[in-house]
Amino acid sequence: MSEPATYSYPRYLEAKRTVDARALNRRVWSRFVDELAARESSPVRVLEVGGGVGATVERIVEALASRSVDNLDYTFVDLESENVEAARTGLRTWAEGRGYSVSDGTPQVWTDGPITVTVRFAAADLFDVAASHEGPPHDALVAQAVLDLLHIPDALGALAPLLAPGGLWYLPIHFDGVTAFEPRVNPDLDARVERLFHESMADPSLEGERAGAHCGRRLLRHLHDSDAPFLEAGSSDWVVVPQDGAYPGDEAYFLHHILHFIETELTGHPELGAEAFADWVATRRQQVETGELIYIAHQLDVLARSP
Q1: In the predicted model, is pLDDT for residue 89 greater than 50?
Q2: Residue range(s) defining the domain that contains residue 42
């Protein structure tokens, strides 16, 4: 596909479903499902922050439906209302396609399936959700590719009181410092673009405490410092490779959107010549269109237990 005329973040989230599905660490995921299914709560309560368009809801429901869990109460939070609406609509379609009856109104209740699911949607900041929380604690807190953007100790500190004793932190797809494109354009320029893109993820106002490009390893450290026992951790790298000159699903759009992120962050940067960087972006886009670009991003999945 050629470069899109406009970019849609919900479409980017949809496009990366297949990328995430390949990337998720199977050992961490399996342990999470085992531990969640073993909880004695009824319903099992899950809070997801930064839920995007609902892919993790689907994954958890599918996994628990084959276990002894018969009732799931899921609170879905995302900062962007357009993501929440896309999730609300998409989850209804997904559930009905699998034989569930889905109620109108709020919350969304799924019945007539192997598991009863109640989904509560909120377009809100996670700190506001944490501050206003009332009701029973949650058996698991899920945050996928969220803590890269935040001050980790503040986020963990705000959310920890919402977990039941022995509750689970499931924190997949957290970036950890490697972005790679092949084939090379110019080794020096490639390295400079990668370094500057990683530096753009830091927030100077937080004095280095926004984890940014090294969120994965810092997340491990901060959980350790909070006395949350680790259950599993492992890599969850994005690897996008063309197959017979094309990309699976909508992954060409995903790659264009990654290049859009980089172009938006680095255009005008004093360490990059404007013409050289524009040529670099154009070359990478052409590589997407001809099915040549290979993209790798190193990330970590983490599972820990609330003390």
Answers
A1: yes
A2: 9-305
Residue 44 to residue 36: CA distance in whole angstroms: 8
C-alpha 74/C-alpha 110 separation (Å) is 11
State phi, psi for 290 to the nearest 5 degrees.
-95, 5
CATH of residue 225: 3.40.50.150
Q: Which two tokens stand for residue 287?
A: 């590589």
Q: What is the pTM of this model?
A: 0.94
243-279 per-position pLDDT tens digit: 998 999 999 999 999 999 999 999 999 999 999 999 9
Kindly state the tokens that stand for 24: 């998720």
In a domain, 259, yes or no: yes
Domain count, the chain: 1
Report yes or no on 231 lying in a domain: yes
- Flag whether 171 is in a domain: yes
**Per-residue model confidence as pLDDT tens digits over 4-28:** 878 999 999 999 999 999 999 999 9
Q: Which amino acid would we find at residue 8?
A: S
Distance CA 136, CA 52 (A): 24
**Which residues make Cβ contacts (< 8 Å) with residue 279, sequence separation at least 6?**
none
Residue 1 inside a domain? The answer is no
Structure token digits, residue 96: 């009905």
